[in-house]
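Box 3.1 — From sequence to structure: ATP-dependent DNA helicase
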Amino acid sequence: MNNLDNWLVKSNRIPQEPRDVEVIKVIETNSGKTSKNGSKKTPKRKNATVNNKYKDVAEKYDKEMDEVDRLISSEEFFDMNDKEKAEFVLQKIFGHKNFRNKDQEEAIISAIKRDSDIYVSFPTGAGKSLCYQLPALCRPGVTIVFSPLIALIQDQVTVLQKKMIRSCPWNSTLTQNDRSEIAKDLFSASPKYRIVYTTPESAQTEFFQKMMKELTRKGLLNYLVVDEAHCISEWGHDFRPKYSRLSTLRGITGNVPWIALTATASNVVETDIKTHLRFDNPKNYKTSVYRDNLYYDVVSEGQLKRDASTNKSIEGENDDNVTIESDMVKHIKKIKQRLIEENGGDFKGYGGIVYCRSIDSCEQLAAHLVSNDILAAAYHSKLKKADKIDVQQKWMKNEISVICATIAFGMGIDKADVRFVIHLGAPDNLAAYYQESGRAGRDGKKSYCRIYISDDTIERSKYFKNLNLRKIMLSKASEEQKKIKEDNIHYTFRKMQEYCENDECRHKMLCNYFGENEKAPCGINCDVCVRHKNEKENMSGKRGIKRPSSDKSILEHTAEIAKRFHYSQEITSNRGFINPMLMGQRFPKASSFTTGTGKELHIRNNYQYH
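Predicted structure (token representation):
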């Protein structure tokens, strides 16, 4: 009689999750019960049509996984110190020559030691997952990872198994046979699975908690990992109530160390995470949220129209129909052209994401991009599952260049070469924006993050804000809890608004939001800093203006000057004097210098990245 059978007999209890009852029946059948004719019973396989991606991969690479198991079970490996083990697994199994940075290396070695809880806050794409995946292979036993989404779990398991690492999901999508096979392995004396991914909801079932308790009793539960840990906090941008109950598992798992990981935690959220998880003097590993390969800018529809009007007046260009959509087409094509120029014959396509606030916007924008020769597709909740998979796979292979999606898309997507992320309207808060925009440039190459705003998008943002406030008001939370949530919504909305409107380095505002108050302006990686840089160069006389020919009109003369200045200002040289903002510029007086007395021309040309 195995451990599971013993427990069922002694406790006389039925697990809370209905499918776990079927798991028990399957285990009993597989453990030796026979039919009347003496043959073994074959359990009926319900939900056999479910596509178990993790199992397909596991069976395909079973022999290779045995080889990985052999490497990390050898006497040679056990004789290594913690640093040597970390480097061995990094190179031999994960295929990396070096750690991303010192913080990642120290976090991993600290996790291998298993002498404290660990808090990790690294930017998107900075290697957070390796901080638990690598230590999980450095000693016998199982690491359990709590993750918010089933789709995210499936992707992570598949990635690990392709690296020949035995991992599996535990959630409602599994068939009864699959659940029984996993359970039997985890209840065995030496489980093969190294990493098990589950949701906080599944972790609350009696059956799963029994498995954790058994692993703890046998000394085989190595770590409990909370991925996307900001979901614990009501001050976070993606609060999930079930996450806040994870700390109850401490009563089952004793002194097993916990690892919390996030990319989007302010100081308040960080404190909340540690409090909820009952961290006592944890080791902290944090790196700056600043990513120097991302260029941030904000473009308003009003400014696009003002610029178009100015260009029409000065240069005769007729672009009365300028819209956010038309500018987006230019923006995307400009990025594509740069990639072609930079990569030449090695250009293999590009990937981008445009986030929309509604399903209709996704559909309409995708159609608009396609009509302008940009390979695009919509991705949203109303698509059939097969269609979602098809769109995502084509995008991953660069057969589709742009996905127009609602915010549900992107979490867990392992695509390193996303070259741009565009938001059609500002997100609800800066934490969400940082996470979503951070899906660009995970390979470290130059990428672009833009927000388009208009009167319509601003009104829609206010609508969602008021909708969230109404939900809080109608909730069953205490008045104190309601007040905290309402204050949080007002605060995060205001910070998002400031990001879009303030004349301040965009990177610095993001860093400040996450508690990095000493961050200096980026200098060259946002529209505001580039504009300020050009202003200083103009003021210092580094940019000369060519003398216009005598037959140039006032308008042409002014246009030539205006093109050299990428900030809002009033050009009045044609009235017989120089605007003080232009003092120090080394350009001679034009022949038309005083012909415009009594006239005034306003030029506005906001800088866009060069």
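Summary of the box: The first strand starts at residue 118 and ends at 121.
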